[in-house]
Amino acid sequence: MKIGEVAHRLGVAVHVLRHWDDVGVVVPDRTPSGQRNYSEEHLHRLRVLRACQGVGMSLPEIRQVLHRGEPERTGAIERQLHRIRTQRAQLEDAERFLVHVINCEHDLLTRCDSCTRYAASVPLQQDEHVTPSTTP
Ligand SMILES: [Zn+2]
Fold first, then answer.
1. What is the DSSP letter of 130?
2. Partners of 29 in beta bridges
3. pLDDT in tens, 66-99
4. What is 3-66's CATH number?
5. Where are the domains of the chain?
């Protein structure tokens, strides 16, 4: 499958596919004339790649996840799981707070123990060093 068709099927720009090839995340085969040639397996990997990007993983991390032989693979997956679970816990706290505050009878949130407790539990700054993804 030619790169243009893959780009069309996945809704991704051609230059993005080239970049993912260049950085070794999803590397297609080459035709004898040197053109990129994607198989269904490559397409599958590209879909996994996009799903991983959707949950905030960086390209180096995704490369590790996609390639079974990568020595850091398990570590990368565990770090991402940890990140997702932390985010979920924070979302659940936020949900509990909002459910409470909609019915909170205190005129000032600071006079309410529940509200104050929630405010105190929110981390002021993420202590995780999440590498911003600089690439598409
Ligand atoms: Zn309250």
1. P
2. 37
3. 888 878 888 888 988 898 899 999 999 889 888 8
4. 1.10.1660.10
5. 3-66, 73-121
